Hints:
Distance between the termini of chain A: 43 Å
Number of domains of chain B: 2
Largest interface: A-B, 57 and 69 residues
Mean pLDDT of chain A: 74
Helix content of chain A: 55-70%
Oligomer: heterotrimer
Amino acid sequence: MYCPLRSGDGTAVINGAEVIVGYVARTLDAEVDSEFQRHLGTCSACREAVAAQEAVWSALDAWQPIPVSADFDRQLLRRVAEQERGRWWRGLELPRWWWRPAMPVAAACALLIGAFVLQYPAPKIAQEAQTQPKLEIEQVEHALDDMDLLRQLGVEAISDKAGPSEKI
Amino acid sequence: MHLRNSILAVIATATALTVVPPGLAQGRRGGTTGAPRGGVPARPSVPGNTREPQTPIDEFETMSPEERQKALNRLPPEQREKLQERLQKFNELPAEQQQALKSLYNRLHQLPPERQEAVRKAVGRFSEQSPQRQQAMREELQNMANLSEQERQGRMGSSEFRKKLSRKEQGIVRDMAPLLPAQ
Amino acid sequence: MSITGQRIDLTGAQPSCNGRVKNDTGIASLEQDAELMVRVREGDQASFGLLLEKHRGPVVHFLYRMVQNQAAAEELTQEVFLRVYRSRDNYQPTAKFTTWLFRIATHLGLNWIRDGKKEKFHNRLDQETSDGAGKQVPDRSPTVEQELVYRAKLREVRQAIEGLPSKQRAAVLLHKYEELEYAQIANVLRCSESAVKSLLFRAYESLRARLAHMA
């Protein structure tokens, strides 16, 4: 590999910087990465450039993310709700007095519903259907598929217990 | 008289609706076989184990022999035989390993379906790596098993994490992180 | 918390999705973001909650490093997600969701810098603010000396980043912390890939001049 920093024209320098940055960021293709590693053994200029870029990279790593405020979501969702309320109200454009005739109708409905409920209690819905969903054999097959998949991880590695991991 | 009864009925209904817990109220209208949110039907726990919900394999094993056979008979013969072999192999695993796999399974199935899919694909990518790289990723997961969620995020953003794993491996570990136990 | 009276369950499940996986490096989750956004467009608010949960942190962190003020970063992030939600009816998954998200974030961040709104938040770099800097020391129970060294280092890094022209700053932050590829950064900054490379490598050159002594 010829030295990527050897400046003949602007292109070579840009390509060189791309290789140095990519090498430190570990985004180079495996082949280019290996070739450049071998080149570093013979080129002090590139070694210096890599060392300088690694210093920058590691310094930037020190700038760790800050925790987000605990009420961030609450505030955001409140703002979204306000935004949406604006949309809905603009669409409706009802006259102010629209609710007046509806009140006695609503009261009458409530009375009728209440009387109906007490005189004709709702039939008991079968409880059994809710508590134990019926097992389909395909669910067992899918569960086994997932178990086989998860076995590839080496199960002990992410159990609740701390300790050295071992592949089972 | 009827009017008074009707008014009392309205008051009683309104009182009941405000006092009754939402879950119970919902139960009256509850679905029968439809899957609730999460796509995972709520399953009763394994008897004697109040922590882990049952997996479909547990449920199958606790059915009566007649019910098991009835369920198996729905499959074509070849598929039925293969399933029985797989079940036997699973049941022959050490109890501790079975339990650990079931815990992982339950954690996986607590995730929304698209996250489950992402985890499955990540495990697939994991298994394609060399044994050495698998071990490196496994160690990272092990290191994070007892950390809080925030500490895990911090770990996955740390320079040590990035130095230890390539970008591809970092992506695999991040996608598998939802399998870690809740702390 | 609710949007328009409906409860948002940030851990709510969705119908199964058919994420397309083209290669690794977490691509499955990127495609799924676009699918989640399509569901938001179709009225599924829980999907918005999932997107918020996933991207809230990275966007806040990006904007914090851009504008170097936590309160402003959070306010700008809220604006980002408000715009995402507002645009849901017209959303088309033509680009990766994160590219679109960071394009909005970068646009707002650059505007904030350009409009010189620092004074509103009374932030000074040499002030020890409550931005959690003291909590970021990775070692457990740091000594006072370690803490001081760490803070000095952090201050230099922040000053070095702040010293970059705003577009170079955005390019570095997207490349280093968000790990976007050159093509994605080009999409975010609305310029060519070669322009991105030029921005980035000039930025890294400046940073090397200022920070190489930290090796």
